[in-house]
């Protein structure tokens, strides 16, 4: 673990410098992705199949996964896993239903109606990574909020493999209610969703995490379609004082660290003693982890223990980090909620261990990473709707407004705007 | 005007083909913008001043506009313009206040608390274009929703000019409550807001329209900071039948066309007769417009009259266009609201002329353009907040959940996730 000590100002300066260093330039990948997208626009399915052969070493006859294949995969999954996925689904649905928004209408002024409609996106694409990062829980997290929003058609794409799509992924897709699955991955799948091909339909928005090629492709097609966010390495921040249990903290830091070698696990505490115990405990627990090598690299390269001088300083520092996951392991944690300005998902107390949110509680686990919780939100129902404004004016109401409108329009040099209103009174 | 006729399917196919053609590749601009951003990261204010000299032909001593300069500008603006801006502000505030969202909390399950906090962004940057596209109304539209959301600090950037920033822009900034103004424009100003310089503070999100350099820069910094949307050329779509007034329709189409030569003005009607009258009326009204040349080019290159066979077909076609502004000039327009799937701002009836929304009604005029209303929303209070999830579990509640969590974690090969939960019960 790297230790960071000093005054709050010194710590904040060090954290900001670290962020600046992390700005990378991926021009080569960007150029490759640009070419892949152009190929898919021009050659459609043929391009997709060529890239699958090249990148995934799979020769595909069909991109589309049939209902029969999905049902077969589902049946092969152990009953208890299906049950756990169904239980998780129930919690995800009950949480996300509370995010549903309502239209509003405003009739404050005589003869004027103003309103806002909440409308679902028509068609959404969900990217599901393949290989060792194929997570059924993520399928639920990406798809269910879209279903609740009222999206008509949900298209899932996932990389092909010689062994086929993992059964548990097919099962999760069936449980979540995916409408169509295509076996295509990487930047080419993002291009297919953004522009459409003979078999893959064009969608309105693409969500779901992926590797650097997927992330770069999402950024490039952003504007042609909507996207959720650019996901970076995952992180956990834990605020704890001397009353906290070092073993719980170490275990939770490691659950983040095992994700990948770039994952960040950060403890902010005002207790030197706790910090030392946590560090010792991490190395003790590490020994028996199957993903020991990954977790160890993450801890040594990106793990951080920050010693703050006061409770207030702990929160100031954590707000600058703006962690994806934030655990508050203080006594009476709810009394500190108002101190938190930036965090994707907040876990309070000794028993809200972060994996509870990954798998079960129903809050979303697709979260803003790498400090982007300063401006991004967890994936939610709001990501799958858009708003439309509605305005109605009577002639009398427009008569009241017309001089101000014409004046401002002319001030901006837009005479036709002024006349459009004045024509109504000729 | 270009006429588009045929079956609904033929019309939809033609519209989709048009969208595909419009996909451009701006590699050269992207490369220039990339270099500008790198320069600003490396050289800060010095780079900003160099670019101002090069692109705006202005040698700047100070980037910061003092409060005295703003107050002086405000005082030089005619009283009636100030009054009109204040009236517009009042309507914008009263509309956008209805967009404010509340935290929620869910205690359905014993020992479990789940919730969502709505938190304002801390600092936002607003880009305000210079030159002939300097619109005080846009300052209000971009800044006021951020104020209502509770953003602490709003930074405005706008290109320098030898004549200084226009008085009416300074006045609008003062009325809207901008905290700081810097005279810097183009891609360099976006870089400054995204990364911070000696004088320009780093922000969490950048909003506001700009030219292709500004739009490209926003796309490149997206992920480092949040951005609103990528704005393209503006458009209006009007649905009307034989009961509508051709002069009103023509005037409203022209109010869009005068914006710029790429602006799109589209009439969808089931009445051939109305279409002919509108076309004639457009050329009649065009003659006396100060921005005749711009409007004429827009009408001739991008203006469109589409003849639909039924009322339902009019809406199907318009939903495919997904216009920024949509006017419904039918009798009893409210009865058709449910037919509208994609539109930024909807104007109902004869008197809700589109400029009402640009200047006065209080709905936002920063809207999704070029068909992006399929997935983007008008700028609103929701653009200046983010959500944080909150989870609390008692030991008993975690005991209920732990087996499902451990099972799913192990199924995904994430042993440390399973152990983090199980540690609580050792």
UniProtKB/TrEMBL annotation, chains A, B:
Q: Which GO terms describe its cellular component?
A: cytosol
The answer, when asked if ATP-binding is one of the entry's keywords, is: no
Residues that hold NAD(+) according to the record: 127, 188, 211
Q: Which GO terms describe its biological process?
A: L-histidine biosynthetic process
Q: Name the coiled-coil region(s).
A: 12-39
EC class, as a word, reads oxidoreductase
Matching entries from InterPro entries are given as:
Ald_DH/histidinol_DH, Histidinol_DH_CS, Histidinol_DH_monofunct, Hstdl_DH
Tell me any Pfam family this protein matches: Histidinol_dh
Which amino acid positions bind substrate, per UniProt?
234, 256, 259, 325, 358, 412, 417
Entry EC no(s) = 1.1.1.23
- Entry binding sites for Zn(2+): 256, 259, 358, 417
The cofactor remark states:
Binds 1 zinc ion per subunit.
Q: What are this entry's molecular-function GO terms?
A: histidinol dehydrogenase activity; NAD binding; zinc ion binding
Write down the required cofactor(s).
Zn(2+)
Q: Which UniProt keywords apply?
A: Amino-acid biosynthesis, Coiled coil, Histidine biosynthesis, Metal-binding, NAD, Oxidoreductase, Zinc
Q: Does the keyword rRNA-binding apply?
A: no
Active site at 324 (proton acceptor), 325 (proton acceptor)
User: Which pathway is recorded for this entry?
Assistant: Amino-acid biosynthesis; L-histidine biosynthesis; L-histidine from 5-phospho-alpha-D-ribose 1-diphosphate: step 9/9
Give the catalysed reaction(s), semicolon-separated: L-histidinol + 2 NAD(+) + H2O = L-histidine + 2 NADH + 3 H(+)
What is the purpose of this protein? Answer: Catalyzes the sequential NAD-dependent oxidations of L-histidinol to L-histidinaldehyde and then to L-histidine.
Family, similarity comment: Belongs to the histidinol dehydrogenase family.
- Name it: Histidinol dehydrogenase
Lineage of the organism: Bacteria, Bacillati, Bacillota, Bacilli, Lactobacillales
Query: What gene is this protein a product of?
Result: hisD
């Amino acid at each position: 673990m790297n230790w960071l000590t000093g005054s709050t100002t010194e710590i904040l300066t060090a954290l900001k410098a670290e962020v600046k260093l992390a700005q990378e330039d991926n021009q080569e990948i960007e150029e490759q992705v640009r070419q892949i997208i152009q190929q898919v626009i021009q050659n459609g399915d043929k391009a997709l199949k060529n890239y699958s052969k090249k990148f995934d070493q799979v020769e595909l006859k069909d991109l589309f996964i049939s209902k029969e294949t999905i049902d077969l995969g589902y049946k092969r999954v152990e009953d208890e896993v299906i049950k756990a996925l169904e239980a998780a689904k129930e919690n995800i649905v009950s949480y996300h239903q509370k995010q549903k928004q309502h239209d509003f209408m405003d009739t404050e002024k005589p003869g004027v109606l103003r309103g806002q409609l909440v409308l679902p996106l028509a068609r959404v694409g969900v990217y599901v990574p393949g290989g060792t990062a194929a997570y059924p829980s993520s399928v639920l997290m990406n798809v269910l909020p879209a279903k609740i929003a009222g999206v008509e058609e949900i298209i899932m794409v996932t990389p092909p493999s010689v062994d086929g799509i993992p059964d548990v992924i097919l099962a999760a897709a069936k449980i979540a209610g995916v409408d169509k699955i295509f076996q295509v991955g990487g930047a080419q799948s993002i291009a297919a969703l953004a522009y459409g091909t003979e078999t893959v339909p064009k969608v309105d928005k693409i969500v779901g995490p992926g590797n650097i090629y997927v992330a770069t492709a999402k950024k490039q097609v952003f504007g042609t379609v909507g996207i959720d966010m650019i996901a970076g390495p995952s992180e956990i921040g834990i605020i704890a004082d001397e009353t906290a249990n070092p073993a719980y903290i170490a275990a939770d830091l490691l659950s983040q660290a095992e994700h990948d070698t770039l994952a960040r696990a950060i403890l902010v505490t005002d207790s030197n003693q706790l910090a030392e115990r946590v560090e010792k405990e991490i190395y003790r627990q590490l020994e028996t982890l199957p993903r020991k090598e990954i977790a160890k690299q993450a801890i040594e390269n990106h793990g951080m223990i920050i010693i703050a001088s006061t409770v207030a300083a702990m929160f100031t520092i954590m707000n600058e980090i703006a962690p994806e996951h934030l655990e508050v392991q203080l006594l009476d944690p709810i009394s500190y909620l108002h101190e938190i300005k930036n965090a994707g998902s907040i876990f309070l107390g000794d028993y809200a261990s972060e994996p509870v949110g990954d798998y079960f509680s129903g809050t979303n686990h697709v979260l803003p990473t790498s400090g982007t919780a300063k401006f991004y939100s967890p994936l939610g129902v709001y990501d799958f709707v858009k708003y439309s404004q509605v305005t109605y004016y009577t002639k009398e109401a427009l008569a009241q407004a017309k001089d101000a409108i014409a004046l401002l329009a002319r001030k901006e040099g837009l005479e036709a705007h002024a006349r459009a209103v004045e024509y109504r009174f000729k």
